[in-house]
Design brief:
By secondary structure, this protein is mainly β. It contains 1 helix and 12 strands; from the N terminus they run αββββββββββββ. The chain is elongated, with a radius of gyration of 19 Å.
């Protein structure tokens, strides 16, 4: 079900929320809407999908298979890796921020699966401007393509 907000109602909801609540603002919240259309504070979540290996490309091991500069600071809540074409053996990935792994152990997609996710990290902070490197420690036999999804609160 899709709910469409009337622009006038949206403006009224924000005005009503601000009028009835002290709006001090935080780095982690924005004004959003509940299912009734009332303005409420919500976490400022961000999701970023990074292509490491093209969808029709075989995955190969190595450090720095994709390196990028983090455009926005992120308090990481979930990390997911995805391969469009399953391998018959595991694909294992490590994520390194400014030279240090943020994972307690590399994340692995089991053979015969397409996705794996983590919600616990050595460090969940990825600061703005950080150099993020994706290392492939094991390449699943027959696996094609590799994506890493970062989800968290913008800081």
């Amino acid at each position: 079900t899709t709910t469409y907000m009337n622009p006038l109602r949206t403006h009224q909801a924000i005005d009503e929320y601000v009028g009835n609540n002290e709006v001090t603002g935080t780095d982690t919240q924005v004004i959003g809407f509940d299912v009734s259309g009332n303005a409420i504070p919500v976490n400022n979540m961000r999701a970023m999908m990074v292509a490491v290996v093209g969808e029709d490309q075989a995955i190969a091991t190595g450090d720095g298979k994709r390196t990028f500069r983090q455009a926005v600071g992120l308090d990481l809540r979930e990390l997911e890796i995805f391969t469009p074409t399953q391998g018959s053996t595991a694909t294992t990935v490590d994520v390194v921020v400014n030279g240090t792994s943020i994972l307690t152990a590399p994340i692995s997609i089991a053979g015969g699966s397409s996705v794996a996710s983590l919600t616990s990290f050595v460090s969940s902070s990825i600061p703005k401007g950080a150099t993020v490197r994706v290392d492939v420690d094991a390449a699943g036999t027959g696996a094609l393509g590799l994506w890493v999804n970062f989800s968290g609160i913008a800081v």
